[in-house]
Amino acid sequence: MGFDGLGRRDMLRGMGVGLVASALPNAALAEALQSGRKLGYAVVGLGSYAVNQIMPRIKDCEFARLTALVSGTPAKLEKYGSEYGIPKTHRYSYADYDRIRDNPDIDLVYVVLPNSMHAEYSIRASQAGKHVLCEKPMANTAAEAEAMIAAAKRADRKLMIGYRCHFEQHNLYVVEQLRAGIVGRPTLITAESGFYAQPGQWRLDRPMSGGGSLMDIGIYSLNAARYLAGEEPIEVSAMESTDKSDPRFKTVEDRIDFQLKFPSGVIANCVSSYSSGHNAFRVTGTKGWIGMEPATPYEGHQLWARQNWKTEQITLPPARKSQWAGQLDELAQAALTGREPKAAGEEGLRDMRLIEAIYRSAREHRAIRLTA
Ligand code: NAD
């Protein structure tokens, strides 16, 4: 089975129901490409994900470039400032952060801080008149996520959440094939996400992380269940399993497995774990299945489909753009054209509300019916 039939237009389509990014030629984009003017990103928080994954990929963007850095550590500002050619005037501490308002080279702000800081630093960026890309999970609570959306709306700026899988070609391909009926009528989704969390990090400290494996890695299972189903769940039930004698889990959960029921009848079985490795999605239907393992790595996705009693591995040609460049350019294009970005704030808020329902279900030992 090949890549045939999935053209560039299809790759640009959103994964959520009705989330279709326009691929029509746009004057603002054409002008940006022609003039070579790229919108400037300030990266806030120079931790592992920012320096190892995001910053090295910004150079691959068509519509964006790195123009500023924000960090509490002067040595990091010096090191990465020199490496990326960011002048001293464009390097900020957290105390200086609000001064980004006065820097016309900053159009976009990418918040890559611990979860508890997402709301504050996103809201302050909106108030400074900048468009915001904020890492997942959007915030510690749904209430914070709502405040972020309100702040962006008030400032008339865009807000997007760092769901890189929405720009990753294997995930896009699976969604496209599902909508084209490759498995017939989908009946079951399995989505497993987990890794062994090393002790001594903010992820295991509830005030910083907002919760355990679900906030950090289980959110991939949750978000994927929604984009694979192409609809929103109507019921959730969850079970937690945490060894409280393990010092890593003093304040957050280890395992929390959950089920989502969708209006079409599809059920998603989802795994979220901080004590074992999982990285697989599969959708089974009346005519076969399609799945990926690993499904959400930085690279090295593997994809299979089973049809007519035959299982085949599917190999896609190399992506034209990495998932990071796709994501970073998406916000830039939304800012240039005035349209809403894929994975906008509302997408993050949906997950935050579901996360709260999952925790509640586990706590109260009952299924939770969800209202639209
Ligand atoms: P990290 O611990 O490596 O980096 C966090 C950064 O925040 C560090 O530079 C740290 O100095 C800074 N910081 C500022 N104030 C801090 C404080 N009070 N306590 C701790 N750190 C503080 O974390 P990371 O892995 O880079 O994660 C950052 C964000 O990115 C998280 O929200 C995480 O969920 C997200 N993330 C996303 C992906 C993805 O694939 N989309 C992957 C990894 C991380």
Describe the secondary-structure layout.
Layout: H1 8-11, H2 27-35, E1 39-44, H3 48-54, E2 64-70, H4 74-84, E3 91-92, E4 108-111, H5 118-127, E5 131-134, H6 142-155, E6 159-161, H7 169-179, E7 186-194, H8 206-209, H9 213-229, E8 235-241, E9 255-261, E10 267-273, E11 278-285, E12 288-292, E13 303-307, E14 310-314, H10 323-337, H11 345-364, E15 368-369
The protein binds nicotinamide-adenine-dinucleotide.
Write up what this structure looks like.
The chain is α/β, with parallel strands linked by helices. It folds into two domains: 38-164 and 323-341, Rossmann fold; 169-318 and 353-369, Dihydrodipicolinate Reductase, domain 2, CATH 3.30.360.10. Helices cover 33% and strands 22% of the residues. It contains eleven helices and 15 strands. It has a nine-stranded mixed β-sheet. A six-stranded parallel β-sheet has the order 3-2-1-4-5-6, with helices on both faces. β5 (131-134), α6 (142-155) and β6 form a beta-alpha-beta unit. The radius of gyration is 20 Å and the shape is globular. Bound molecules: nicotinamide-adenine-dinucleotide (NAD). The site of nicotinamide-adenine-dinucleotide (NAD) has 17 residues, from α3.
